[in-house]
Amino acid sequence: RKEVEQDPGPFNVPEGATVAFNCTYSNSASQSFFWYRQDCRKEPKLLMSVYSSGNEDGRFTAQLNRASQYISLLIRDSKLSDSATYLCVVNPSGSGNTGKLIFGQGTTLQVKP
Amino acid sequence: NAGVTQTPKFQVLKTGQSMTLQCAQDMNHNSMYWYRQDPGMGLRLIYYSASEGTTDKGEVPNGYNVSRLNKREFSLRLESAAPSQTSVYFCASRNPARGREQYFGPGTRLTVT
Predict the structure, then answer these.
(1) Bridge partners for A87 per DSSP
(2) Interface test with chain A among B47, B102, B109, B110, by most A beta carbons within 10 Å
(3) For the segment A34-87, what is each residue's pLDDT rounded down to a tens digit?
């Protein structure tokens, strides 16, 4: 079983739609969680961190469910510019201060006019 | 402030050839990382350097060596390239004092024939 699993998609949605992605992780002791965004043939960039209490940044909302070991990302009012691959990222337990991260394979979103 | 830079951007090698991928960061970050990204898989950690003077293996170190030349530079060497090393290679850096966000370079696309 992969440590971090995502549905690769693609998710094809019209502009203005609300779309949600889930991600599951296998290590219950994992410490920190993130969503990164990766545009086609570009480097990944941090979209947002995911906190236990949930957090929101404009149209984006991230939530963590430790009991079920999943993380979600909700995008409201989708824009064409949201088209990208969204990577679920976990900082595993036992990594100390090395900063090691485990990446999911990514979920591809295509927003259509 | 260029962030993280990588050279070359593209490279084609024949099986058995060697090469070094260069990475430099100008953000005064202590930690640096090398990943590879293959289709259908998340980024996988090859080697990392938690601080200047230290290097450690990641998830997929076989066939690679690294050198943390100084605080700015972290190079990845393929001593005898194999077709299985065809991939996109990303370098990243992080300031441990400022959380777990990693900043990525633009990547090197390597093909081994």
Answers:
(1) A36
(2) B102
(3) 999 999 989 999 999 998 888 999 999 999 999 999 999 999 999 999 999 999
Yes or no, beta carbons of B42 and A101 under 8 Å apart = no
**Residue A2 confidence class, pLDDT cut points 50, 70, 90:** confident
CB contact under 8 A, B41 and A105: yes
| Residue B51: Cβ within 10 Å count | 15
Count of H-run helices and E-run strands, chain A: 0, 11
- Is B31 in contact with B48 (CB distance < 8 Å)? yes
- Reduced to 3 states, what is the DSSP secondary structure of residue B95? coil
Radius of gyration of chain A from its Cα atoms, rounded to whole angstroms: 14
Cβ atoms of B65 and B79 closer than 8 Å: yes
Tally of CB atoms within 10 A around A46: 17
